[in-house]
Amino acid sequence: MSEKEAYQQKLEGKLDEWKADIDKLKAKAEQASADAKVELEKQVNDLRGRQETAKTKLNELRQAGDEVWEKLKGEAEKTWNDLGEAVKTASSKFK
After folding, report:
1. What are the pLDDT digits (tens) for 18-32?
2. Which of 15, 19, 59, 80 has the fewest CB atoms within 10 Å, measured from its CB?
3. pTM check: above 0.90
C-alpha cells in the first residue's frame, strides 16, 4: 500500500468516526429542551458542512496525481484539524 493510499484510509476512518459523533449530537438535539435543541441543531449543521468540505478534500486527494497530492495533503490536514476540533468542542459543550 502506498503512502497516499494509507493516508486516504486514515482520513476515511476519521470521517467515519466524526460522522458517528455528529450523529450522536443530532440524537441529543432531538431529545433536548427547545433552547438547547436550537443550539445543538446549529452546531450539527455547521459540523455537517465541515464534514462535506472534508469529503470534498478526500475526493480531491483520491484523484490527484502523485506530484500534486503532497500539496493537497497539507490542505486536507487543515480541513481535518478544523473538523476534529469543531466536533470535539461541540461534543464537550453538550455532554
Report:
1. 999 999 988 888 888
2. 59
3. no
